[in-house]
Amino acid sequence: MSYPRPKRPNHDHGGWMKSRDLSPVERGYLTVLLWFDRRFRLVDYVETLETLYYRTNLQLPKSHTEQYNLDNKFWYWYPLYALGSFSILAYVVAAISGALLGFYYSPSTAPAGVDGDVTVAYQSITFIMTELNLGFLLRSVHRWSAQVMVAAVFLHMLRVYFTGAYKEPRELNWILGIVLLSLLLLFGYSGYLLPWDQLAFWAGQIGVELFLSVPLVGEWVAQLLFGGFSLSQSTLQRMYILHVFVFPFLMTALVAIHVGIVWIQGIAEPH
Ligand code: HEM
Questions:
Q1: Atom of ligand 1 nearest to the CA of 178
Q2: What is the average pLDDT across 23-35?
Q3: How confident is the model at residue 59 (pLDDT cuts 50, 70, 90)?
Q4: Nearest residue (CA) to ligand 1, atom 28
Q5: At 206, which helix (H) or strand (E)?
Q6: Can you tell me the distance from the alpha carbon of 211 to that of 190, in angstroms, rounded to the nearest whole number?
Q7: What is the spatial distance between Cα 145 and Cα 155, in angstroms, rounded to a whole number?
Q8: What domains, with CATH codes, occur in the chain?
Q9: Are the CB atoms for 209 and 266 separated by under 8 Å?
Q10: Is any atom of ligand 1 closer than 6 Å to the C-beta of 105?
């Protein structure tokens, strides 16, 4: 079945191929190319890709030194411009190691162990640390990449501040950055509670009390996020769902928008 196609001016393959003196190799190559082009519109797609390539490159200046005539004064600040990308790298490492940890962790406060004196969640962490092959390494990579990411994002924010890159027209990306930093801290907090050890439990308690001290909405938020005013299975379950299901998708989407805006606006020149 054929479908209607708009008439394309450059794609009249009729007479011109015969009218030129072509070698058999050229003729064979063109015949194959045209056969595919008639069916899959190759040339259209290649042209679209070409346009996209040139637009992308327009956003990336060759070098700031060259473009703004800075005479090599600024080159030693350039590594600081990589902190945003470094945060993304740390995020990818945390995501991969986190997905692997998820195979072995169980978010349950039910009693476990010989005497039932520890929880299933805590026991699954003990299993990862002492019995799983390279489990201690996997967990350490996850914790360290998360902490390195917080440090990198904070330093990235300082770079943006001290180079004045938050100014017009980049105000919205600065605000989105604040949202990203807040989300990152909540992401870390939800993960910190998962081992359900003493540190996690009391950090959870502080969280509940923090929200309870907020006027009007505090109690409602504590109930929603922690599943009550004292810690229980509902708390751990909520933190788990936030940590593995809600925050990763939200964070990935917002980082994509953040970087998309940088791509559209281009990097700010050093002031
Ligand atoms: C998850 C956290 C974040 C990630 C992954 C991220 C990623 C990036 C990347 C890759 C860039 C390109 C330039 C560069 O790397 O320096 C960038 C630029 C930018 N970021 Fe972030 N960022 C994050 C958080 C933040 C925060 C907390 C702020 C500020 C509150 C912020 C504000 C900005 C601004 C204003 C730009 C444009 C800078 C320019 O044009 O020179 N970002 N970000």
A1: 30
A2: 91
A3: low
A4: 177
A5: helix 198-212
A6: 15
A7: 15
A8: 17-47 (no CATH), 77-265 (1.20.810.10)
A9: no
A10: no
